[in-house]
Amino acid sequence: MTTRIIVSAETDQGLEAPISPHFGHCPYFTVVDVEGKEIRAVGSAANPYSAGHQPGEIPAFVQGLGAQVMLSGGMGGRAIALFEEYGIQPATGATGTVSEALTRYLNGDLDAAAPCSESVEHGHG
Fold first, then answer.
1. What angle do CA 111, 65, 28 make, to 5 degrees?
2. Contacts for 78-84 with beta carbons within 8 Å, 24 or more apart?
3. Tens of pLDDT, residues 47-86
4. pTM across the whole model
5. Which residue, among 86, 85, 75, 64, has the nearest Cα to 112 in the 3D structure?
6. What are the residues whose beta carbons fall under 8 Å from the beta carbon of 64, sequence distance 6 or more?
7. What are the residue ranges of helices labelled H in 33-85?
8. How far is 34 from 2, CA to CA, in rounded Å?
């Protein structure tokens, strides 16, 4: 069974792209299809909302890419809830490159989401 994982990225360099620390402002999403722990396909999609977005726009866009999982450095509590409403599992705390974050996720070391401190400070946690 193939799982589509979307990862917030700073560039469109696929697996070598650096993780974006916050999904809402990332310039790109790396799109990865995996079966078990094996990577089957890698692509990239520009984030049409990187300059600014309304709540729900990015989760809807990511759902349109066919995601089951969303990996990012961080995201707000409202975004976490919206991804879950769309049936997408969010996971935060990703660092390094897309490849490194995928390895952590596939090994079970990156599987939960918590609101970033900025979101909590602004009452969105």
1. 75
2. 78/119, 78/124, 79/23, 79/24, 79/55, 79/119, 80/113, 80/114, 80/115, 82/55, 82/56, 83/59, 83/113
3. 999 887 777 899 999 999 999 999 999 888 888 999 999 9
4. 0.89
5. 75
6. none
7. 57-64, 77-85
8. 5
